[in-house]
Amino acid sequence: MSNYNDDCRFTVDCHILPQITGALPSSFINIDNIPIPSGISLADPSFNTPSAIDILVEAEILRSILRNNSIDLGKNQPKLYETKLGWLVSGFVARHKPHSSSFVCNFINEGANPVLHRFPKLNTIAAKHFLSPEERTCKQRSQKRTRHKDDGRFVVSMPLKKEPSVLDDSIQKTKCRFISLECKFPRTPVFINRCVQTCENLNA
C-alpha cells in the first residue's frame, strides 16, 4: 500500500473479497462549498466522486499513519486530518438540496465471503448439545451408580472405557510400592520430616 507520490509504503496482510461494499460516497459531493486550503495534498483527490472501495484497513494501521495536524473547516464542514498518505477528509458534509432528501444504507453481503458468513455461527451457542456415544454411556453410568452416603458425601464410580481387568493387579503393585517407601523412611529422615509437614499443612 502506498500513496499517490509513492514516497510512503506499507506492507499489509489482506483478504481478497469480490466486493467490500457499494460505491462511496453514495452520491456526488460538490466540493465548491468546502473551503479546502490551497496546497493541501489529499490522500484521495476524488473523494467526492462515488467509486468502488479498493482496500479496507484496520484501525491499527490508521493510527500508525495519522499525524498530529488537523484543520477544522468550520461549522457544518468536514475536518482535514494529516496522514503519511496525505490529508483525509472526514466529517459532516452539507448537501444543498432543499427540495429533496436521500437515505443511505451501507451493508456487507455475507454470501460473498464464506469466512464472514461463519462469524455469527461461531458466536452462537447451540440450543441443544448432542452427546457422543461415550458421553451418553458415561452419563448413564453416573446416574445409575452414584450413591449418597449417610455422612452427606457422594460416591461416584470411575467411568472406565474398558473392564477393570485391563488394569491388571494394580492393587498389589501399589501395596509393594507403599511398603518400599515405608522401609525407605527410617533410612532417610528427610522423607519423614516432609511427610509430617505435608500432613500438618493438610490438617491446617
Automatic annotation (TrEMBL):
<protein>
    <submittedName>
        <fullName>Uncharacterized protein</fullName>
    </submittedName>
</protein>
